[in-house]
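subagent[fold] <- orchestrator: predict structure for attached chain, return tokens only, no commentary.
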Amino acid sequence: MTSVCETGRHRTHDVYEAQCPCRAMLDLLANKWSALAIGALEDGPLRFGELRRRLEGVSPKVLTQTLRRLEDHGILDRVVYPSVPLHVEYSLSELGLSAAVPLAAVRDWVERNIDRTPARPQSSTRENNGFTDLK
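subagent[fold] -> orchestrator:
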């Protein structure tokens, strides 16, 4: 599916074209930590520590990188309150709120259907044409 570029910077948007700028946004939103951070912020602003506790398993480094990418792409707003120590809050921008809707549907689908997938050990791998794939 293609759409006309509203800004005039590109002729059309087609995520299947190799040079389409949509691919960077798709890559960002398809990232596990991005999708989970956006979901965690659906109910309102959170501080870094609150986000880290909510997103169990994410390292501080990966969370910082994820939040910066989301902010750089206009998905998040970052507000620094001048206090000691600094108080920083992250919230979804208008664009982020619109991205949250389809991501919530994907998260919901995963939670409803995970038990329907074949049960396989997480550490199992198999060789496929010289690449190691998770089973």
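orchestrator: received. Logging for downstream: Residues 110 and 117 are 10 Å apart (CA to CA). The two ends are 31 Å apart (CA to CA).
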